[in-house]
Design brief:
By secondary structure, the chain is α/β, with parallel strands linked by helices. It folds into three domains: 275 residues, TIM Barrel; 135 residues, 2,3-Dihydroxybiphenyl 1,2-Dioxygenase, domain 1, CATH 3.10.180; 186 residues, 2,3-Dihydroxybiphenyl 1,2-Dioxygenase, domain 1, CATH 3.10.180. It has 22 helices and 25 strands. The strands form three sheets. Strands 17, 18, 19, 20, 21, 22, 23, 24 and 25 form a nine-stranded mixed sheet that branches. An eight-stranded parallel barrel has the order 1-2-3-4-5-6-7-8, surrounded by six helices. The chain has an eight-stranded mixed sheet with strand order 14-15-13-9-12-11-10-16. Strand 1, helix 1 and strand 2 form a beta-alpha-beta unit. The radius of gyration is 28 Å and the shape is elongated.
């Protein structure tokens, strides 16, 4: 599979961008004129650098406001094109990208535009150059790919071809059917960009909110099916304008780009056409059967405090690792692993972040295949030494340098607790609190990281993503989006904020990085669970009386039920599917906290109550 990315997609200088593009495994690069102009060297220097990195310049762009110009502008436009041809010769590039004209003095007319392109084709052909014509969604006279194709068709020149860009097509909600009738050999380049559906002017949408395939809402597989039907077998290139990408590491963003193309092409397996035949041979997205365990890293002092908290939550210590200072705590189907060993990954994680969730283990249908898929998606595998007879659990690097482990029920990995752990001589005695499973896990991250981890989970696991939500925090807006399995056995909420005053952002400061901020544990009877937790000495978040007065006014809950919720500090929500009850522990060292939830058919996450919880937590941190 031949892949390319435009230099405008990444932050940094041209040299840094090219190194990142090559390291991510791209074969080609689109050189944006602005990157070349700001480069401290000659075009021939760029050509040498590109070649030394094993890349090829697939196009130079953009060339603007070409077709349909009146004289004397028309003559000057052709002279400008000749200058670009000279420059492309020095770059070693043979494709010039021309965007449809936006100049206010440009003239309409398909035949006029076609005549201009035919003449340009004659000049380009003498140089061994081709020209690609792209319809900008905001083009003055040509804003639809069907019109740009008609211009190319009437130009009728072998040096003039069509460029298709998914953003410009989807942003205008243009029908894809006509793509199938375009001869594949007349398409010179296919550019890909995803985006969330937004109600705003197209140019601002394009300049700030494009993203990689799989990170937005566009049905790109439908676009790819249409392109593949033409017989096109050339490059797939990414052209992304995104503020988050410009604030991120060029290397990590480039890896995301390559991952997005592998994932997109993986979805093309089984389709017809030349492109579909190039789909990578990788295992399918992993089916997640649940969270096998969450691993907490802590030193001896914090491990003792966490042990008391786990016991207070109703967990029992049911296992001790055979060779490490690691214990297993269990309740229902929930397993919490507490690692206070003085060596290894968890110890390093604890030194960097303090007491924290250092790893998450997912139970999948095939752990080996999941790791294989992860590596082909350019996720980073992880290995560390294990003791004699102990299991080596497949793992990749996760959010904030944490680990994501994989176990499955069909290999020895399914016997992890029997192989690596002994039964403790003494178990804790507080007793079960009625917790049954992990309902969801919330991870807080830097704002510019959010699309990365959305793509990470969505490309690796068989999950879907919910629409983005903006949650009101006393310190600003928190953006939240959930990835989840169809059966709800895995739900991960991704949270990020541009404000430094939100709880999410303050967590990043306290934690020194991105990570798990809260863990929601399910119960079948939240009132009974809360009573047990209070009896065990667990401190719960105090909810203001005003909340319950408002709840009484806006709901039809019986007075008796409202009194119970008020008495126990339980929050309430409902949707078309059912009801939802929530309570929260106070935070552990301002680093993480637990949520207790009871679902009665409810599908959401209590977003209506998020601002109440955040305000209560903010008050706690000020005490």
């Amino acid at each position: 599979m031949q892949t390319s990315i435009a230099t405008v997609s990444l932050s940094g200088g041209l040299a840094e961008k090219l190194e990142a593009i090559a390291a991510a495994g791209f074969t080609g690069v689109e050189i944006f004129e602005s990157d070349l102009l700001s480069f401290n060297g000659t075009p021939k220097d760029v050509a040498r650098m590109v070649a030394s990195l094993g890349l090829k310049i697939v196009t130079f762009q953009p060339f603007r406001d070409f077709e349909g110009m009146p004289e004397p502008q028309r003559s000057r436009t052709f002279a400008r094109a000749e200058r670009k041809f000279d420059l492309m010769g020095e770059l070693g590039c043979n494709l010039l990208m021309i965007c449809s004209n936006v100049a206010p003095d440009s003239l309409a007319g398909v035949d006029r535009a076609a005549a201009d392109f035919h003449e340009l084709g004659e000049r380009a052909q003498k140089r061994g150059i081709k020209v690609g014509y792209e319809a900008l969604a905001w083009g003055r006279h040509v804003s639809d790919y069907r019109d740009s194709w008609e211009v190319v068709r009437r130009a009728d020149h072998p040096a003039i071809g069509l460029t298709l860009d998914s953003f410009h097509i989807f942003s205008r909600k243009t029908d894809l059917k006509a793509i199938r009738s375009i001869p594949g050999d007349r398409i010179v380049l296919v550019q890909l960009a995803d985006a969330p559906w937004l109600d705003m002017d197209v140019m601002s949408w394009s300049r700030h909110f494009r993203c990689f395939p799989g990170q937005g809402d566009f049905p790109l597989t439908e676009f790819m099916d249409a392109v593949s039907a033409t017989g096109y077998s050339g490059l797939l290139s990414l052209e992304i304008f995104n503020d988050q990408f410009r604030a991120g590491s060029p290397r990590s963003v480039a890896v995301d780009g390559q991952r997005s193309l592998v994932y997109l092409m993986d979805q093309m397996r089984g389709a017809s056409g030349a492109l579909a035949k190039e789909a990578p041979q990788i295992p399918p997205r992993a089916k997640c059967l649940g969270v096998e365990f969450l691993e907490f890293a802590a030193d001896d002092h914090d491990a003792a405090k966490l042990s008391r908290l786990f016991a207070g939550l109703g967990f029992r210590k049911v296992g001790e690792h055979k060779s490490k200072a690691v214990t297993r705590w269990s309740q229902g189907s929930i397993n919490l692993v507490l690692n206070s060993d003085k060596e290894g990954f968890a110890h390093s994680h604890q030194l960097a972040h303090g007491p924290s969730v250092c790893a998450m283990c997912l139970k999948v249908d095939d752990a080996s295949a999941t790791l294989d898929r992860a590596e082909k998606l350019r996720d980073t595998p992880f290995r560390q030494a294990v003791g004699p007879g102990e299991l080596e659990i497949p793992a990749v690097r996760g959010l904030g340098g944490s680990l994501l482990y994989f176990v499955d029920p069909k290999t020895q990995l399914g016997q992890l607790w029997d192989i690596d752990f002994n039964t403790p001589k003494q178990a804790q005695a507080n007793g079960d609190a009625g917790l049954t499973s992990i309902d969801h896990i919330s991870q807080s991250m830097q704002y510019e990281e959010m699309l990365t981890w959305l793509l990470f989970y969505n490309s690796l696991l068989d999950v879907t993503k919910t629409p983005q939500l903006d949650v009101i925090d006393p310190g600003g807006i928190v953006r939240s989006q959930v990835v989840q399995t169809a059966d709800g056995k895995l739900r991960i909420a991704l949270n990020a904020s541009q404000s430094q005053q939100t709880l999410s952002s303050r967590f990043l400061t306290n934690y020194v990085g991105s990570g798990v901020q809260h863990i929601a544990l399910a119960t079948d009877n939240i009132v009974a669970t809360v009573k047990k937790l209070r009896a065990n000495g667990v401190e719960l978040l105090s909810i203001p009386e005003n909340y319950y007065d408002d709840l009484e006014a806006r709901s039809d809950l019986p007075a008796e039920q409202l009194d119970v919720l008020r008495q126990h500090g339980v929050l309430y929500d409902r949707d078309d599917a059912g009801e939802y009850f929530q309570a929260y522990t106070k935070s552990f060292g301002d680093l993480f906290f637990f949520e207790i939830v009871e679902r009665r058919g409810y599908k959401g996450f209590g977003a209506v109550n998020a601002s109440i919880r955040l305000a209560a937590q903010s008050r706690e941190t000020q005490v």
